[in-house]
Amino acid sequence: MTTAPTGLDADFYHFQDLLTPVEQEAALRIRDFMEREVRPIADDYWERAEFPHHLIPGIAATGVIGTMWPESRTFENSALFRGWAAVEIARVDASFATFVGVTSGLAMGAIGVGGSDAQRAQWLPAMGRGEVIGAFGLTEPLAGSDTARGLRTTATRRGDTWILDGAKRWIGNATFADITLIWAKDIDDGQVKGFVVRKDTPGFTPAKIERKQSLRGVQNADITLEGVEVPETDRLQRIDSFKDLAGVLGPTRIGVAWEAMGIAVGAYEAAVRYAKEREQFGRPIASYQLVQQKLAESLADVTAGLAVCVRVSQMDDAGTRRDEHAAMAKAFCTARMRETVARCREVLGGNGIQLDHGVARFFADAEAVYSYEGTYDMNTLIVGRAITGHQAFV
């Protein structure tokens, strides 16, 4: 007999009950791993700006990496489960959630959507087992929101070899990834193409970005590409334009919306614990009206965000989700996350800025999640275009 995992206190409307019994058991495995292995060390690694590489086999063993693809998944699962898994990880450590999201969502997603059958068979099973780590190289020093038009990295074909030249920035996992999916503009047709670049390829140089104050555990890199030679066999065979690439970004934006809710859940849980333990004027601060108001408002924001995530994931499973649906989810949930972590920090007063009390890390990490996978402004413009029929990007 199996036992469904105990629901999270922040799951006020019991959304987790929508998961199948198999999915709920998987959620329990993920939660157990995060509580047992990651939580005790998360603050320390965040403060040192290091990543706990030794935990990669353990998180892979939970089956959470590569859950979308038949070549790598260990059980049938839904978009709803994949989102809930992001909550379970992010409520403990957003840096670790970003690592999983990059290799499982972006890198494996690019290969799953754009790779040939042979490329999928070559990479996805090993990536799902955590034996091959992926990164996703789209953003550039001078091209963030305008990558659809402003991509400057070039790809030049010479026979059966492509030559890549350019630069990438803010590429998560890239300092240690085995492969990085590099997106470049074909100089012949002006279209965006995707390439699997192995870490030891001459001319491919990642350098860790230092002095970050958000997602410090994520090993972001500046990448230079100087005459990088990639065989045609390592070009993603089903990606021939930025429109094709956009097919990768929709599901990952939904994943970031779920991750944002995980961060909000983590901050809310810490604030509730603190409020029950911290005493002022002879009683726990949880007994005061203004503190209860902050907690109730935070729980309402979490519940609203989870509701949006649940519905857009159901639409994803049904095949009715469009780009504007994913964009709205990402924009709305990251905004609610930002408000929630700020409110929860207020509950802790001065202690809210110290790592030891459980909110400061979420408060800082929220800023990066608010911006990546499309800024709030860009995602609202995608929704605005769907509403009005007019594009207002420039």
TrEMBL record:
Keywords: FAD, Flavoprotein, Oxidoreductase. Transmembrane segments: none annotated. Residues 248-387 form the Acyl-CoA dehydrogenase/oxidase C-terminal domain. One of its GO terms (biological process) is fatty acid beta-oxidation. Signal peptide: none annotated. It holds the Pfam family Acyl-CoA_dh_1. It comes from the Bacteria. GO terms for molecular function: acyl-CoA dehydrogenase activity; flavin adenine dinucleotide binding. PROSITE patterns: ACYL_COA_DH_2 (PS00073). SUPFAM superfamilies: Acyl-CoA dehydrogenase C-terminal domain-like (SSF47203), Acyl-CoA dehydrogenase NM domain-like (SSF56645). Residues 135-228 form the Acyl-CoA oxidase/dehydrogenase middle domain. Residues 23-131 form the Acyl-CoA dehydrogenase/oxidase N-terminal domain. Its cofactor is FAD. PANTHER family: ACYL-COA DEHYDROGENASE, ACYL-COENZYME A OXIDASE. Belongs to the acyl-CoA dehydrogenase family. This is Glutaryl-CoA dehydrogenase. It comes from Glycomyces algeriensis.
